[in-house]
Amino acid sequence: METQDYQVTHAEITKFRARGYTNEDILPKVSEKRNTGLMNYFTLWMGSVHNIPNYAAVGGFLVLGMSPINVMLALVVSALVVAVFMTMNGLAGSKYGIPFSMHLRSTYGNTGSKLPGFLRGGIAAIAWFGLQNYTGSQALLILIGKLWPGFLTIGDGATILGISIPGLIAFTVFWAANLLIGLGGGGILNKFTAILSPIIYLVFGGMTIWAIRVAGGIGNILAYDVAGATAGINPIVGYLMIIASVLAVWAAPGVSVADFTQNAKSSRDQILGQTGSFLVSYAVFAFASVVILIGGSINAGTTEWDVLNIINSWDSTPAIIISSLVLLMTTISTNATGNIIPAAYQLTALLPKHINYRKGVILASVISFLIMPWKLMENADSIYIFLNAIGALLGPVAGIMIAHYFFLNKQKIDLDQLYFDERDKSVNSIYRGTNMQAYIATFVGLVVSLIGQFIPALAFISNIAWLAGFATGFLVYWLLTKTANKDSVIGAIK
């Protein structure tokens, strides 16, 4: 993997500004602005692993019928796969200092990039931001209710727009906390994750020790027989399902990872930092999550996959408060890295003359409030279908981006042509227009990844939708570009 970085000059920046790129968030980063180092990347994703949905997912993995040790190993293997994906797709950002919107343009063309960019940053990110805020606010509501029981009776059961008054207050408070972290951008996020990471390991390390003790030893946990588990599942199938599920969690951040790697001091820093971050955090999470969930279940005498219920069963109020607060902070970290920051950058790319990063954060946050995510949660099936469709699309997009950057263009992007003057119709840029080969491959990948939803015999494909979509998009795009006239392929550097 080539890691020699391109140094963008101030003369180039001045030239690009003259061509209409006046928004700083769109421009490539010069060396003095690339200040995110190896340790920043090492801590970046650690706060995004120990969250409530991920613990629930591990419970689902155990129900597959795999042994606890196999679930742990599958999570670590998944982390390695995610690390390879994130570092490879992040290389364009770290090498050239460009954000996701321009990385996407280098693949799909300046016109063609708008639709996948909008689906990633304008729909998926904002919808997930609202839903994550609602999930976190429910945990906050439980915590406040434990400390102040009278809070839950405010309004005497009255509702506003379908949500209770205490629920609306908790949602607004948690939403505001996420908004403030988003406004701080990468700098505040780096500081936040640097402080949060050691606290996470202290708290979940303590919870792991507690779980081993109440379970009567690690042997009882590893030998635990999950009630209702699927019998006789093929271990290879189980591993693939877990890998695909973990990849799906990182599908959106992985596609837009250039928004984070554009600030890298070097490609080496982001590669080593992200790889270490995923391997260490998931190794700890794999062991801790399985031990805590099974240990908590043994202690309760019933299967319990909700980590909040396990925490709330404790006798120590201070321990409940500290652990719940850490879970809430990890949700904020996840929401910032995976949703609000990408949404803000993409809104900036779509409307660069009117929206900058801070305005993008505010706009995306307001929209996430106005869509009333608590109403979306009333119909779980429609939410699943909607978000699964968006996730299924991002697999092919990721496959096409990697195929284009590594195999078609050999890790080269012509910045002078990428930042062409769109106002001048006479300019002949290799990135102008729409890459139809990419669109065809995206559509085929989407059909393949969703086909199991409509043909029961192919249901397994939908269980590994991201992997199926990624592989299909990659292969179809590679074949189309190999057989097409190179002059007809957007961004094909000769």
UniProtKB/TrEMBL annotation:
InterPro entries per the UniProt record, alphabetical: Pur-cyt_permease (IPR001248), Uracil/uridine/allantoin_perm (IPR045225)
UniProt superkingdom: Bacteria
A GO term, aspect molecular function: nucleobase transmembrane transporter activity
Keyword Chloroplast assigned: no
Family annotation (Gene3D superfamilies): Hydantoin permease (1.10.4160.10)
Membrane-spanning segments: 42-64, 71-92, 169-189, 201-224, 236-258, 279-300, 320-345, 357-377, 383-408, 429-451, 457-480
UniProt keyword terms in alphabetical order: Membrane, Transmembrane, Transmembrane helix
Membrane topology: Multi-pass membrane protein
A Pfam family assignment: Transp_cyt_pur
Subcellular location: Membrane
GO cellular component terms given for this protein: plasma membrane
The family this protein is said to belong to: Belongs to the purine-cytosine permease (2.A.39) family.
Name this polypeptide is given: Putative allantoin permease
